[in-house]
Amino acid sequence: MLKHKVSGTKFLGKVQMDKKTIRDVDVSGKRVLVRVDFNVPLSEGEVTDDTRIRATLPTINYLLENGAKVILMSHLGRPKGVEEKYRLDPVAKVLSGLLQKEVKKVDKTVSDEAKKAVSELEPGNVLLLENLRFNPGEEKNDPHFAKELASLGDIYVNDAFGVAHRAHASVTGVTHHLPSVAGFLLEKEVRELYALLEHPKRPFFAVLGGNKISDKIGVIHKFLELVDGLVTGGGIGYTFLKAKGVYIGQSICEDEELEHARAMLKKAEKNGVKIYIPLDAVVTKEFDPDAYYKVVPIGEIPKGWMGLDIGPKTIKTYKEALKEAKTIFWNGPLGVFEMASFDRGTRSIAEAIVSSSATTIVGGGDSDAALRQYGLEDKVSYISTGGGASLKFLEGNSLPGIDALLDKTNVPNKVKN
Questions:
Q1: Angstrom distance (rounded) from CA 295 to CA 310
Q2: Residue 127: enclosing H or E segment and its boundaries?
Q3: pTM of the predicted structure, to 2 decimals
Q4: Torsion sign across C-alpha atoms 138, 142, 144, 150
Q5: Is 347 a catalytic residue?
Q6: Which of 68, 173, 200, 217 has its CA 20 to 30 A from that of 117?
Q7: Is residue 229 annotated as a catalytic residue, yes or no?
Q8: Among 319, 388, 396, 414, which one carries the catalytic annotation?
Q9: Catalytic residue, candidates 93, 108, 140, 212
Q10: Regarding the domain with residue range 202-357, which homologous superfamily does it belong to in the CATH classification?
Q11: Known catalytic residue at 212
């Protein structure tokens, strides 16, 4: 059995949370303050993908069915102060449709209006607060802001795994003032990801892409102790190539991480883990969807050109490797999939993943977006709602948003007035 230790979880014959959930508290008639992750894509004031909203429905419906007064809070985007385009009105509209009941929204997070709306909220109804990040105290984990948020509830529920690695006011600050438990989505994320680490079916392959290897150093080191093969693309693939002394032209690479990359190559060799790196690339002179491009072998990228996708030889090799897999974890595109000229690699590997007989887990973020772009999101075993959080979790790091919740062995005596 692996000795991997993750905050908020343990292995007792089956994966389970050692944190209290909404099943462990009486919510009837209570004001339940719920941190959700409604950071959804918008276009012209409309939600274009409601996946994250739908993911919270089991928790919200459970609370409503058990007579709670539900107060939801979320961030959206990275606003600088109050920005109209980041208001949560479109989210309230979608959620109202999904719940088939009115979701009232207030235009500030903490205000007299919010307090009045909470005081008027009846059991079985829902209120949505305005974008948390309109308040500078949110990301600063300001104690005063956290206390104001907490004053709106009797119980706090974290159902936002996507921000569980953030020590923000709505994630950890409020837990100093309210009995704090997990929602069903957070519980499910922990269960699925921990199972991936604890007992994956083998061969176990990880597919890692994206621009930055620095974002994934910790999880790569962890995977080199767990996986049978590591498939790379994007900036990660080019950084490994340059670390091996291969010329990559202007392809994206983090030169400051080359020593880390060399150390990981040595670790892989020592552990008998094969790292798959690109054999050819789709290259261009310009980062433009209409730019001229061609396919060249790795090592023959012309000076001044950059690789924006893996080439056909690489695709064939990767697909052959993944055919053998019984477990696949994927995080990060293999190329610039947003441009049609450079999406073949990501599309082909996504299709190979979903057509395999393996248990397939996708680590959120751009991988999730790619699956949805290709209409493949329903063909994987599990999609995490937290890109960065899932990677931190898989590294074995402590997640403050989980640590702050009540342990199953505790009673709610941590509340500070």
A1: 9
A2: strand 126-128
A3: 0.87
A4: positive
A5: no
A6: 173
A7: no
A8: 388
A9: 212
A10: Phosphoglycerate kinase, N-terminal domain (3.40.50.1260)
A11: yes
